[in-house]
User: What shape does this take?
Amino acid sequence: MLPKDPAASAISASTQQSLFGWRDIDGGVESAWPDRAGLPSVTGQRYVRFVRPVQVAARGNFIFVVDAGTELLYRYDLSRNNLKVVLDLKGVTAGEVSDLYVYPDHSFLLVDPDSARVLYFSRNGRLMRVFQDDLNLVRPVAAVYDEAMGRVLIADGSSDDILVFTTTGELQGVIGTRGVAEGQFLNITAITTGADGIYVTARLGHRLQIMGRDGSHVKSFQSDAVVFPLAVAVDRSGNTFVSDYLDNSIKVFQEGLFLESIAGSGVAPGRFKRISDLWYDEGFLYAVDSLNGRIQVLRVEVIEPETEAFSDDAVDLETALPVDVGDQPVAADALSPDESTAETELEAAQSELEKLQAELEAASSKLEAAKADVDNQPAEVPVAAEAVSVEPAQVIDSPGSGIQE
Assistant: This one.
């Protein structure tokens, strides 16, 4: 049973959470949208609305949305209210995407449970790598890049454990087992990482736990505060946000203790119909309001107890949302006209890099074929090894190390 005074259970915490101000994003302006072959089919502009968004991720000024209704991955630009199709999921995934992770360079992971695979794409939607293991990865449900350790973590909903992969796709180990004891999981629903370790939500047993990066159990959260967790996000201070399918709320935890419950069922701002995903970035919490067809953005502030809390009226989210320009976030209206072309130039550079990579791979294949032909020649024909052994440049081995926006 939840405490009558939600803040009472966290009264010993050194900080308190201030959550305020919802902004709705239900779509955006899509210019010269492509046809299914990827070619511009229509000129002009139109406003495209989300149908049934299911996953969200945000990096600075850009919000990425998987829409199961249209089977598309969108990228929304906050400063321009612009919506771009990054990837058409038809024929790419076998079923509905269960998780999305976006790296700082805007490359991304898509979790496809029906094919038992996690797919890694470049920022322009080119498939670069597949994470799979026929014996151990049966039904992936969530994935995250563990930046502290430089590895990919994939939660398996069949065996209820977390598989540890290298960035090149080799299975390294496993964290946790199936069960209801501490350090065990039963019906994993989501994972993320934070300063304290790996955060894991599950439908049964310990519904929210932190696991150390060495696989040890660190902490179990207050178990009666959330009934059916679907998504989890953690801010830089370790405050944890968990969506509860039972009452369409977001439960806020501080130091493992339940602090408060926000939102609830409905259609008004700050109300939800199925919160299917959460993502925290640069002071903002992004929540997928799936059946209302929108992404809701909540400003998150961590304040000292003696600091006077701001009122909802004091925040203008339209200008407060960050715009990623260089290393410093600025207000949306502070962008100069020249900066508005930066993304186009970066995309062109990235495309050129990918073309060079493809050429290198093709050249490597030809050299290997030439080497094989030489090996089949009579022994009396000498061939210098260095003439046919060329190591292709590695451009994409470490996801997340590409060009920044």
Summary: Confidence is low (pLDDT under 50) at residues 1-16, 303-340, 380-405. Residues 339-387 form one domain.
